């Protein structure tokens, strides 16, 4: 089986006041049709890695890699036209806050229909029907009402469902979800993740779930990649999270307050400078 | 220390808080949990005097709280907000941010107090003349805590103080709050959607749903899962599920 995405030796640098500032430093990943969790704190390079998979980094960024290949396309040499064909059609991106990622002056359903028409040939009516069908697939009970609603008339969870429906419209192979539930309530968060989980499994897609929340990610992914300082610290099966070996992963797990047991003090993570060096 | 009786808050047609009542003893930490829109932050803001259209009665240290609060109240009650990016003045240095409460309350020895406040929240001295954007999220929240404590309050109102922070930084800020609370014998009210965070800091808590307090329970009952209201049970089950401890 050819992998959906293959990253080897990815380096991304941004220009800073004192020369290049590294954001990603030698990350290698191979992704199949699975759910992969990319976990780390702010500044760990997890989002930049996700964006690199869509080549959605600012022009000032410097990207170097031995291999950067998604759905059979070499991102290092692809033309802007090839990238446009890839984005949306083969890879979808879901961002944190639907308030900012949906067009505020266009009804939600029209935005889904537009996404569908950009990648399928069909009439307006077919696009409308496809959009309504997608809305019901993301478990919206009254698709016609949500179709006509503007984003500000929708709750956060509803907006995120619209966003997911829009990303599914072209039928991509890979979905990148960057903190898709961080702006939502815990109950809604669980609903959205279960929905994503089911859609990805049913459609046989690959999912990259980018998040700072290690326990949450381990509940919904098959495999977890833990990043720190632009590097991969540890890669493990989600089911083996409790057996994580790397002190950083262990530190991330240990510093959380727990509901089942009281603790006087929360252990604070001691960061080892050696984590940023070596192979 | 704090007593709230039959508090109602209306914003136009929206009845945000419906008949909330609770008491907090001196030196106690009390939690308010619920989903967004449950009214938990509004209760806190009404206590702080940041919300006007309320009815019912609230008292602090035996004195009834009116519509307008005096300088002594504002010195005794301080608040820490969720977002350290939004709650610090972007064009003021940390030194300036921390001197503001001292000027307002006419507290002398600003120089020493600011140095001590920074030390108390474990910030390096160099931070004093930096701007908020030059600090990390955790350092910013420490500045917000230092600002709240510099006038020597007896009550600390915390509105989701760690929700915007990474897990490791959250641990540092929670430890800091626990230490300061013990050292200064503070009475705290903590608003959070995270049950584990509330259980860590608070001995008692109220669960809110659609503006109403549906249940008040203590830390042991929360940890032991001995809740009676279905909404509380739901929140506990969800928290365990997402923790991976379910």
Number of strands of chain A: 11
* Average pLDDT number of chain A: 91
Widest β-sheet, arrangement of strands of chain B: 6-7-8-3-9-10
Rounded to an integer in angstroms, the radius of gyration calculated over CA atoms of chain B is 18 Å
β-sheet strand percentage of chain A: 15-25%
Tally of helical runs of chain B: 9
Task: Furnish the topology, listing elements before pairings.
The complex is a heterodimer of chains A (279) and B (246).
Chain A: E1 5-16, E2 19-31, E3 35-39, H1 46-52, E4 62-64, E5 67-70, E6 73-74, H2 80-86, E7 91-94, H3 98-101, H4 108-119, H5 124-137, H6 143-148, H7 156-168, E8 174-178, H8 186-203, E9 206-211, H9 214-220, E10 223-228, E11 231-237, H10 247-254
Parallel strand pairs in A: 3-9, 3-10, 7-8, 8-9
Antiparallel strand pairs in A: 1-2, 1-4, 1-5, 5-6, 10-11
Chain B: E1 2-11, E2 14-24, E3 29-33, H1 40-48, E4 54-60, E5 63-64, H2 71-76, E6 77-80, H3 94-104, H4 110-120, H5 137-149, E7 155-159, H6 167-184, E8 187-192, H7 195-201, E9 204-209, E10 212-218, H8 219-223, H9 230-243
Parallel strand pairs in B: 3-8, 3-9, 6-7, 7-8
Antiparallel strand pairs in B: 1-2, 1-4, 4-5, 9-10
Helix pairs in contact in B: 3-5, 5-6
Family (chain A): Belongs to the ABC transporter superfamily.
Domain ABC transporter (chain A): 7-254
Main location (chain A): membrane
Task: Offer a concise description of the structure.
The complex is a heterodimer of chains A (279) and B (246). Helix content of chain A is 34%, strand content 24%. Chain A is α/β, with parallel strands linked by helices and 279 residues long.
Explain what you see:
The complex is a heterodimer of chains A (279) and B (246). Chain A has 279 residues and is α/β, with parallel strands linked by helices. In chain A, 34% of the residues lie in helices and 24% in strands. In chain A, the strands form 2 sheets. A 6-stranded mixed sheet of chain A has the order 7-8-9-3-10-11, sandwiched between helices. In chain A, strands 1, 2, 4, 5 and 6 form a 5-stranded antiparallel sheet that branches. Chain B is an alpha/beta fold. Chain B has a single domain, classed as 3-Layer(aba) Sandwich (Rossmann fold). In chain B, the strands form 2 sheets. Chain B has a 6-stranded mixed sheet, sandwiched between helices. Chain B has a 4-stranded antiparallel sheet with strand order 2-1-4-5, covered by helices on one side. In chain B, strand 1 and strand 2 form a beta hairpin. In chain B, helix 3 runs parallel beside helix 5 and helix 5 runs parallel beside helix 6. Classes of the chains: A alpha/beta (279), B alpha/beta (246). The interface between A and B is medium-sized, with 31 and 34 residues.
